Amino acid sequence: MNSHDVNNRLSQIPLINKSILHSLNTTLHPREQISHVQSLLIIFETVRISSAICSVLGVLANLALIYVIANTSFRHVSYGLLIATIAFFDSIRLLSSIFYYLIFANVIPRNFITKIIYVVIDRYPIFVVNWCKVLMSIERLLTVRYWEHHTHLDWRSKHKRKQHRQFTYAIIFILISGFISQHPNFFSQRYEFIDINYQRLMFVIKQNPNFKYGYYKFNNTLFTIISYLILDTTMPVFSVLFVNILLLKEIRRLPLSLQVKVKESIGILFFLTGLSIAILPRAFIALYGHYVLDDDYTLLKKLSISFYICLGFEYFNHAITGYTCFLQSALLRSELKNMIWTRYIVHHLHE
């Protein structure tokens, strides 16, 4: 195959960025260029389209969930407050995915500021959502353990109001802790460059080895491991799993009649916990992809494919929150139907 035939075949592949072709043309055999670019772009475009759909539908469902909670008695209970917080930051994470692909498509200018914005809005919601799920697990554990004593209490009771206040403080603590743990991401001096590697179709971050935090040299590797892997993902995911194991033990101690009543209450938590596990492999793949430079293109291909498959599951995790809550909770569904009927349908019928 001569170079003219190669260029003709490459030109027939839609949506190929010329930067990808340039990087591959200098390193791969002509026959390998086609298969390598095609396989990466198939995965990339599939996840991009799926993420766009998930983001739009997910944001709508999450906003509907927040609206229902904010306009009903759910806002007065700690469980409703936690779900609303998770739904809000899930929406921010989904919007960051749109921002991510718009940068790739050059719709948003690809400059240093926009890339730093992406790094910040991409990481912070993950921290908040994961740790709020830990709080929700603890709240459900306390609810099940003291089910017979407190289930009959109204949200106006002293105990319920005190619990609501305590979990509000806990959420504020998580929000502040997230900024503290990730505030070095705001320092532009930390990075030599943040750019798109078109061989991997991933953002690659080159750290500044001479950056100083105060009077001390900043350890980028240690910060990445502690913040990115441990605090953001590994610790909260394993904490949720541990609390859920305790929760299952508490449920088994209840009489069968009460276990049926508790089932709806914990169904949302168990479903969201299962999806959260998908975050772990993506975090390790992203760490390797961002900070390890490797010229093995077979490995890069597998790395990119694995990264975007895990990323797709992660976006699905954020998008499904609102739908899971409405499907699992008959009360939330009822409140949503009443709001749609009384505030929209009836209003238009009277006009």
What this model shows, in words?
The protein has 351 residues and is mostly helical. The protein has one domain (3-350): Rhopdopsin 7-helix transmembrane proteins (Up-down Bundle), CATH 1.20.1070. The chain contains 13 helices and 4 strands. Strands 1-2 form a two-stranded antiparallel sheet. Strand 1 and strand 2 (202-207) form a beta hairpin. Helix 4 (78-104) packs parallel to helix 7 and helix 10 crosses helix 11. The longest helix has 41 residues, at 30-70. The protein is globular. The protein starts with a helix and ends with a helix. Mean pLDDT is 76; it is low at 1-34.
- Count of domains: 1
Classification by helices and strands: mainly alpha
CATH top level class name: Mainly Alpha
Mean pLDDT: 76
Strand element count: 4
Q: Unreliable runs, pLDDT <50, ≥5 residues?
A: 1-34
Q: What radius of gyration results from the CA coordinates?
A: 24 Å
Domain G-protein coupled receptors family 1 profile: 61-325
Keywords: Membrane, Transmembrane, Transmembrane helix
Main location: membrane
Protein name: G-protein coupled receptors family 1 profile domain-containing protein
